């Protein structure tokens, strides 16, 4: 399986959920990967989830 670079083009919203092992922070984003625009949700867990979610802004890099 190959991983591709993706960059956030727009943050669509934030959501807090409890998935059984504790709360998680979902950040719904629109992203660009090699010219293709798509949407997904980035999931952050643990004690630093709020700080990590706050770092997601336009230009944020992640792998898909």
Describe this structure in words.
By secondary structure, the protein is mainly β. 9% of the residues lie in helices and 58% in strands. The chain is built from one helix and four strands. It has one helix spanning 49-54; strands at 5-18, 23-33, 36-44, 61-63. The chain has a four-stranded antiparallel beta sheet with strand order 3-2-1-4. A hairpin with a 4-residue loop joins strand 1 and strand 2 (23-33). The longest helix has 6 residues, at 49-54. It is globular and about 35 Å long. The termini are close together.
The geometry reads as: globular
Euclidean distance between termini CA atoms: 10 Å
The SSE string, one letter per element, is EEEHE
Q: Unreliable runs, pLDDT <50, ≥5 residues?
A: none
- Percent in helix: under 10%
The order of strands across the largest sheet is 3-2-1-4
- How many helix segments? 1
Average predicted local confidence, pLDDT: 95
- Measured by DSSP, the beta-strand proportion falls in over 45%
* Radius of gyration over C-alpha positions, nearest whole angstrom: 12 Å
What class, by secondary structure content? mainly beta
Features:
single chain, 64 residues, mainly beta, four-stranded antiparallel beta sheet, 4 strands, 58% strand
Present the secondary structure layout.
Elements: E1 5-18, E2 23-33, E3 36-44, H1 49-54, E4 61-63
Antiparallel strand pairs: 1-2, 1-4, 2-3
Task: Put the structure in a nutshell.
This protein has 64 residues and is mainly beta. The protein has one helix spanning 49-54; strands spanning 5-18, 23-33, 36-44, 61-63. Strands 3-2-1-4 form a four-stranded antiparallel beta sheet.
